[in-house]
Amino acid sequence: MKHKLADQVVELKDDRSLFARMLIVARSRPDINLKEGIGQHEFTSLSRALFTMSEELLMVILEELPNKPGGDQQPEDAANETAPLPPRKMIVIDGMAVVQAMSKPPWVKTCTQWADHFTATLDSKCSDYDEVHLVFHRYDLPTSLKEATTERRQGGKPATAYHVADNTPVGKVSAKQFLASTTTKDELMVYLAKKALCHFEGKPTVFIVTSRQEVLSNSIEVQHLCSSQEEADTT
């Protein structure tokens, strides 16, 4: 903001945006102890996980480790060591970002066709990878930051909610209209997660996907995992 004082123009920079976000978080997440959190985590440009207080990089500790696993083994133990596993390539995909980017082509008339378009887009992105992690936003939370943003964008007008099923007609509805409701987006994320999991069943690619707080996979045990964050970016 610029304010003119006499013959001078003074630029005022404030932290209004930062504290507004902190206030929203505090009101929408009553389980977060804001006083305790601010007391334990400093607002700093240096990551305390990577740097010391004197700004020295902690990664030096890793550089001092042996270059090969089992560097302190005896020669006879090293001879019996199995060969290292070949490198694997993994990709992490934001599911909602894919939905927004691929839009809804004119030939998509039902949710089944939309899901087919979604899985085809996934194939084009992860054909060169050994492991795929598909992460969706969570829209099932009782108080959501995104829900407040959506209501503000709609100007207080209620959005039409659609039930997502195989035969749900979507041909005459734009993607923006269809995704205007938080309820619809929640059902769509669960629907696409299950469709993607079925798509990767029986394939050699390791596939892991979140569905609300549940985590599913086509080949490995993931029952101990839980998707607890609202944003796919931070998950």
Name the features.
235 residues; alpha/beta; 4-stranded mixed sheet; two-stranded antiparallel ribbon; 9 helices; 6 strands; 36% helix
Task: Give structural notes.
It contains nine helices and six strands. The protein has a domain at 90-217. It has helices spanning 16-28, 34-40, 60-63, 75-79, 95-102, 111-126, 145-153, 175-178, 182-200, and strands at 2-5, 8-11, 90-94, 131-135, 206-211, 214-217. The mean pLDDT is 78. The two termini are 35 Å apart. Strands 3-4-5-6 form a four-stranded mixed β-sheet.
Elements, N to C (H/E): EEHHHHEHHEHHHEE
Give the overall pLDDT as a whole number. 78
Ends distance: 35 Å
Global geometry: globular
The helicity comes to 25-40%
Number of helices: 9
- Report strand order across the widest sheet: 3-4-5-6
What can be said about the biggest beta sheet? 4 strands, mixed
Radius of gyration: 24 Å
Briefly characterize the structure.
This protein has 235 residues and is α/β, with parallel strands linked by helices. 36% of the residues lie in helices and 12% in strands. The protein has a domain at 90-217.
SSE inventory with pairings:
Elements: E1 2-5, E2 8-11, H1 16-28, H2 34-40, H3 60-63, H4 75-79, E3 90-94, H5 95-102, H6 111-126, E4 131-135, H7 145-153, H8 175-178, H9 182-200, E5 206-211, E6 214-217
Parallel strand pairs: 3-4, 4-5
Antiparallel strand pairs: 1-2, 5-6
Helix pairs in contact: 6-9
